[in-house]
């Protein structure tokens, strides 16, 4: 199993996962054209896609879905409530390309198992995915206001995980956003801060090599260096030294991370 975080941040999200027989993306939150450019950068072709797995209906996750589904005949997977919420946002997607992927279920594609699980976010029925093959595990979680014990259980033992490190609380509080938006981001159905992300990470990593991708950074209320520093410090205060067996990897709003084995 190999993967790349194609793009991540408040401006658009998509993650690519493949094995020898299948290729999926989790969300397509950038325009069709930008998505094609990202695929070129990892030397892959969208014609090979087995499916698009949708997490929730916010535009930074679904912007390119309609265009790509129609142009490349890609099957799209989402739960029933998300399908309903996406109606009118993604244009027509032919019935034969619409598939239901219900919450807390597993689908098997040959040797690859994909599992869906709930997050706490202000969308119709938001969920994220974990990928399993030959004892290796990749988990993707962003867009959640807090990290529940259930979510921690899912991440535990992952070889790689993509995890939200959305904002610096001070930057958000001092920033120019109206109070209603600040309150939404900080709420239990908003986004996870750098510190809260690190605390959750410290509770799920074991002494084995783990790659943690810091994802969904806010354009206005975070910076790569700040997220990395803040996560590193909080991990350290919990007795975990980044660089020993836990490796932090930056993601970018426009540049894919290297396509690597999970
Ligand atoms: Zn998002
Ligand atoms: Zn969202």
From TrEMBL:
<protein>
    <submittedName>
        <fullName>Putative metallo-hydrolase YycJ</fullName>
        <ecNumber>3.-.-.-</ecNumber>
    </submittedName>
</protein>
<dbReference type="InterPro" id="IPR058121">
    <property type="entry name" value="WalJ/YycJ"/>
</dbReference>
<keyword id="KW-0378">Hydrolase</keyword>
<dbReference type="GO" id="GO:0016787">
    <property type="term" value="F:hydrolase activity"/>
</dbReference>
<feature type="domain" description="Metallo-beta-lactamase">
    <location>
        <begin position="11"/>
        <end position="216"/>
    </location>
</feature>
<dbReference type="Pfam" id="PF12706">
    <property type="entry name" value="Lactamase_B_2"/>
</dbReference>
<dbReference type="InterPro" id="IPR001279">
    <property type="entry name" value="Metallo-B-lactamas"/>
</dbReference>
<dbReference type="InterPro" id="IPR052533">
    <property type="entry name" value="WalJ/YycJ-like"/>
</dbReference>
<dbReference type="InterPro" id="IPR036866">
    <property type="entry name" value="RibonucZ/Hydroxyglut_hydro"/>
</dbReference>
């Amino acid at each position: 199993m190999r993967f790349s975080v194609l793009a991540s941040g408040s401006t658009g999200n998509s993650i690519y996962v493949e094995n020898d027989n299948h290729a999926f993306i989790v969300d397509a939150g950038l325009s069709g054209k930008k998505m094609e450019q990202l695929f070129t950068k990892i030397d892959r072709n969208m014609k090979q896609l087995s499916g698009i797995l949708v997490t929730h209906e916010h535009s930074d996750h679904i912007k390119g879905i309609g265009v790509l589904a129609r142009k490349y005949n890609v099957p799209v997977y989402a739960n029933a409530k998300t399908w309903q919420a996406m109606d009118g946002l993604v244009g027509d997607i032919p019935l034969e390309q619409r598939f239901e992927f219900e919450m807390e279920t597993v689908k098997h594609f040959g040797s690859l198992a994909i599992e869906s699980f709930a997050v706490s976010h202000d969308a119709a029925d938001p969920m994220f995915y974990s990928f399993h093959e030959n004892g290796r595990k990749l988990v993707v979680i962003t867009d959640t206001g807090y990290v529940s014990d259930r979510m921690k259980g899912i991440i535990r033992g992952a070889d790689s995980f993509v995890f939200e490190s959305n904002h610096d609380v001070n930057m958000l509080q001092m920033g120019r956003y109206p109070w209603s938006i600040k309150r939404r981001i900080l709420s239990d159905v908003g986004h996870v801060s750098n510190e809260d992300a690190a605390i959750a990470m410290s509770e799920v990593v074991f002494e084995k090599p783990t790659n943690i991708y810091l994802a969904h950074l806010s354009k206005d209320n975070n910076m790569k260096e700040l997220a990395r520093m803040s996560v590193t410090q909080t991990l350290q205060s919990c007795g975990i030294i980044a660089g020993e067996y836990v490796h932090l990897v930056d993601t970018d709003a426009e540049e894919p991370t290297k396509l690597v084995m999970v």
